[in-house]
């Protein structure tokens, strides 16, 4: 018998699809059209992101052919690292804040409990210790800071509905409505482009009930894997269909079969 979740955790449950929120779009085709239109509007922004990243990586601004065409074949085609130095310098104060030995949050309460202030302080320190003990913490945080400084927007997202392990998301993978303002609270909708490793998706089919409790649709997952299998025959193991892959995963005989490059967007 499963214990009842703590009070206040109802928001962590997957929403009931038969009783959607009044502000939710319930027509999947309409959602797909909105996202597709938003993705097309990204093209100019993607080019700007590319130019900034190229400059940060010190990729020469022009090719030799471009210089000659402009009558500058004699010029040195180099990047002296100005963009890299500027972004790294602006990011340093944020990184320094993250590496200070102070807690990241402060808890407070109006409850009249003996030694509560001390207990809340211990909770804040335990929270910071948990975060710093996560091996990916500083790398994900630094990438978010880099994106914030370089592109004006730093984003975290949480790939697991009930998990606290976040991932940094490049703003090129954020789709917003046309003419969206800077305040995300005013966006009627948004979407992110992310990738799922094939092995992780197969795991959803190996435990369908758990996947459903997290909000996944196992038949849709299976359909997506099947499309991948048919379109990527070179990488997919020969003579193995989706059901065989799920069976092998459940019996722990597929370790290393699907490498990290096998992903779905």
Structural class: mainly alpha
For the termini, the CA-CA separation is 37 Å
Strand order of the largest sheet: 1-2
Give the DSSP E fraction (strand runs of 2 or more residues). Answer: 5-15%
What kind of sheet is the major sheet? 2 strands, antiparallel
In helices, the fraction of residues equals 40-55%
Compressed to H and E, one letter per element, the order equals: HHHHHHEEEEEHHHHE
Shape: extended
- Report mean pLDDT, rounded to a whole number: 80
The helix tally amounts to: 10
Radius of gyration: 24 Å
Unreliable segments (pLDDT under 50, ≥5 consecutive)? 1-12
Number of strands: 6
Which short descriptors sum up this protein?
265 residues; mainly alpha; two-stranded antiparallel sheet; 46% helix; 5% strand
Verbal overview:
- This protein is mainly α and 265 residues long.
- The protein is 46% helix and 5% strand.
- The chain has ten helices and six strands.
- Mean pLDDT is 80; it is low at 1-12.
- The longest helix has 18 residues, at 82-99.
- The radius of gyration is 24 Å and the shape is extended.
- It starts with 27 loop residues before the first helix and ends with a strand.
- A two-stranded antiparallel sheet has the order 1-2.
- Helix 4 (82-99) crosses helix 6 (137-151) and helix 7 (198-206) crosses helix 10.
- The protein has helices at residues 28-40, 43-56, 64-69, 82-99, 116-133, 137-151, 198-206, 208-213, 218-231, 242-250; strands at residues 155-157, 167-169, 174-175, 191-192, 196-197, 263-264.
- It has a domain at 195-265.
């Amino acid at each position: 018998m499963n214990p009842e979740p703590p009070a206040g955790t109802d928001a962590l449950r997957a929403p009931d699809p038969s009783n959607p929120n009044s502000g939710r779009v319930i027509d999947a085709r309409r959602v797909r059209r909105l996202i597709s239109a938003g993705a097309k509007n990204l093209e100019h922004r993607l080019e700007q992101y590319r130019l900034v990243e190229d400059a940060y990586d010190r990729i020469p601004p022009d090719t030799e052919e471009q210089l000659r065409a402009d009558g500058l074949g004699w010029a040195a085609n180099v990047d002296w690292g100005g963009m890299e130095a500027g972004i790294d310098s602006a990011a340093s104060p944020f990184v320094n804040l993250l590496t200070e030995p102070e807690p990241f949050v402060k808890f407070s309460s109006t409850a009249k409990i003996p030694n509560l202030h001390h207990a809340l302080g211990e909770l804040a320190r335990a929270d910071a210790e948990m975060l710093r003990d996560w091996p990916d913490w500083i790398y994900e945080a630094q990438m978010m800071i880099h994106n914030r400084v370089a592109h004006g927007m730093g984003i975290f997202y949480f790939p697991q509905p009930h998990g606290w392990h976040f991932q940094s998301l490049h703003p090129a993978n954020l789709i917003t409505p046309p003419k969206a303002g800077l305040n995300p609270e005013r966006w009627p909708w948004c979407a992110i482009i992310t990738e799922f490793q094939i092995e992780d998706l197969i795991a959803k089919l190996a435990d369908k009930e758990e996947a459903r409790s997290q909000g996944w649709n196992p038949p849709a997952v299976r359909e997506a894997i099947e499309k991948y299998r048919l379109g990527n025959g070179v990488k997919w193991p020969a003579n193995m269909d989706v059901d065989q892959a799920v069976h092998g995963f459940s019996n722990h005989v597929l370790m290393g079969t699907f490498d990290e490059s096998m992903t779905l967007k």
